[in-house]
What we know:
Two copies of one chain form a homodimer.
Chain A: H1 5-8, H2 13-31, E1 36-37, H3 39-46, H4 50-58, E2 64-65, E3 69-71, H5 72-83, E4 89-94, H6 98-104, H7 107-110, E5 114-120, E6 130-131, E7 134-137, H8 142-148, E8 153-156, H9 160-173, E9 177-180, E10 193-196, H10 199-216, H11 221-225
Parallel strand pairs in A: 4-5, 4-8, 5-7, 8-9, 9-10
Antiparallel strand pairs in A: 1-3, 2-3, 6-7
Helix pairs in contact in A: 2-3, 2-5, 3-4, 8-9
Chain B binds a DNA duplex through helix 2, helix 4 and strand 2.
Amino acid sequence: MSADPALRREIPDATVARLPEYLRTLSRLAEDGVLSVSSEELAAEVGVRSAQLRKDLSHLGSYGVRGVGYDVETLALEISRALGLTEDWPVAIVGMGNLGHALASYSGFVTKGFRIVGLYDDDPALADERVVGVRIRPLRELVDHHQVDPIAIGVIATPAPAAQAVCDALVGAGISSILNFAPAVLSVPDGVDVRRVDLSTELQILAFHAQRKSLAAGDLRTAVVAP
Amino acid sequence: MSADPALRREIPDATVARLPEYLRTLSRLAEDGVLSVSSEELAAEVGVRSAQLRKDLSHLGSYGVRGVGYDVETLALEISRALGLTEDWPVAIVGMGNLGHALASYSGFVTKGFRIVGLYDDDPALADERVVGVRIRPLRELVDHHQVDPIAIGVIATPAPAAQAVCDALVGAGISSILNFAPAVLSVPDGVDVRRVDLSTELQILAFHAQRKSLAAGDLRTAVVAP
DNA sequence: TCAACTTTGTGCATGGCTTCACAAACGTCT
DNA sequence: AGACGTTTGTGAAGCCATGCACAAAGTTGA
């Protein structure tokens, strides 16, 4: 017998990025009372090819039954395990402006797997306000909090100029997983993971494709440029 | 002489996704009074390899000077042109809960290139409220608005169950670029671009890496599983 | 029990992206 | 004017991810 492949082998980043999507869809199917799905059906729901789905799942182990498909509950559990969602991860949000408030009350957060344990902002106007049952505190209190009740993931929702300083504070406190909503590139030591979510980057990518479409749709600008 | 490569050749998706980052960094350098950068310097700022930066830029044309580097202003302008940001794109946001409010007042929006022209929500409690100078209206008024004053990009910030219906409404009105913040996979006809930003997906990816780190750091779970 | 049918798991080919390494091109200094 | 040092732009190689196609493995029905 071999050990769980999820814990031994390397899972490609591209696969990891798709697992949350599979999990979400499986959860919805489970709620709808669906007991079993084929790779073809699940792939159609998620919007990927069935071969890709099967290859992705093969990195976790072999949880399907040939001729039948996958048991929805089992597969959801195995993906949860692979992602590390069988226990809750404590999350702190720094920067409680509009975005911070939105994130704190976002339903996705309450989803199994994550728990908000700290909200931080140095603006005195926000001090002691409560959001989803957690009190907003000044950032300097984060270190003490982390020592008593460890924080696994730090979310930065401050304006861009403050982001690096906040990041340094988080890293200094010993937090090594950071989700950054500020439009800034953070420099961190090795071993710290940063993921960035940036609204304006996404808009700009959409603008690029929109421009291509409008040019392709008979706009004559290319012809004007060429002699 | 050939026409602008940005308008004739295909720019790889991976490159397009990095251009906004280059542009943001160049804008910051320009504000700091920097006139010229080498690919090495700019790549270090952005966090990519210099060879990658040069290859990315080569898809736009040849705007560098050998032995010197790139003129900051010129390069910023050319990237703006390639992304289609030399004119403003009208944006509408649907769903004005916490997230919608945060997006509307997000500074990234006001950045050159985008302009909020419509805010929509069917909740009567929000009707006629003004955010950043724009009045919130019921979604059914979007079609009329779009006919008078075209909307290029639609942003969906509703809860997941409403997302597909809102998407259908946007597509029906003739909008073909959509940014989706709801945790749902949208099905759209060919020719419509959808980009999704999902908080919980990002958190789950972080959780995966955090778990790997904690396992690698001497946790004995793998040893227990193996015989 | 056995044949027919379904669906998984995966070797292999294909395509795209990243990285390397270097010639070509430019400025500078003598 | 010419040699030298620097930096770009790009062919070529390597790497990773995707998609194809099929054998293996399971179920169903007779």
